[in-house]
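Why does residue order matter? Because the sequence determines the fold. Keep that principle in mind as you read this record.
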Amino acid sequence: MSPPTPRLRRALLVLTTVPAALLCALAPLPAAADAPVDTAPAADTAPAATAAPADWTARPAGGGADRDARPYVYLEGTPGTALQDRLAVTNSGRAPLTVRLRGDGRAGAWIGFAADTVTVPARTRAEVPLALTVPPDAVPGDASGEVVADDGDEEIRVPVRVRIGGPTLAALTVEDVEISGGTIRYALVNRGNAMLEPRLAVRADGMFGTLLDRPERPLPLELAPGRRVERTEPWPDAPALDAVTVRLRVTAPGGARDEAEASATYIPVAPAVGGGLLVLGGLALLGSGAYRRRRTRRGDPEQPGAEQPGVEPPGAESADDRQPTTETRPLVKAGPLVKAGAES
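Structure:
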């Protein structure tokens, strides 16, 4: 079977490239991503006692008119001191209640209870003394934790906040900024020793001006010293075609401040693929035409079996055979010519 001619090859290329480009151009654009969900851990939300079942509660003990008014345990002291407080467990049910107490988190590990297991009679309130001992090597600033009360079926978490005396440092960084479709991802890190309540401002600039400008606003979290929180910022009206730079600025009371930025290029997927195939098809056509014109200028290709330069057919005389020989041969001397019909 003879190989396809250049014209046939060009026709096949057009027949395969054009339908693929049309399919890509007509394909629907990918749907926009759903609005992102904040991924901040629950431990860094604003301090408040966890919602409790209807038949019993656990919360910081109060006194007088402020009884049960405190949303969390708050203590202040210097490294090496023991701080006292009380936890109130109220059983509003009709049967005795037994709960187990433990500490959780950094400050929770410093807490000891007068009794780790407490049984509270029906319709009775019990107050359990607790002591928090600040380690001698504790860094000045804020520490957080929780008191956990568990009855085997449900548990209640009571936040604990400790202010450790000494010089404090408020330091906050915003890191790992990324842009993915309609979502801006970033991380906040508390680099100091004070509890922080961050505020965030977002700005995005494109090739022709500002695309997004969100003024500074408080974030719904408290960032403990040393904690890192990964968060997302929704951008539902992100451009379809542009080169953008997103800048994040975070601040916190005490002078903490930081900025970070990231860049991204938005290109529609389907038109880009279709356009790329069209360009490749055009380049292939141009290359095929140039090749055909070059072959035409050089003349038609030799037919199969034609003699090629530098290749001798079988049995042909070599160059050496065609050289004149130097061998001498004897000369034959001619005699006198005899006329025909001469008499003898």
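Helices lie at 6-26, 105-108, 269-298.
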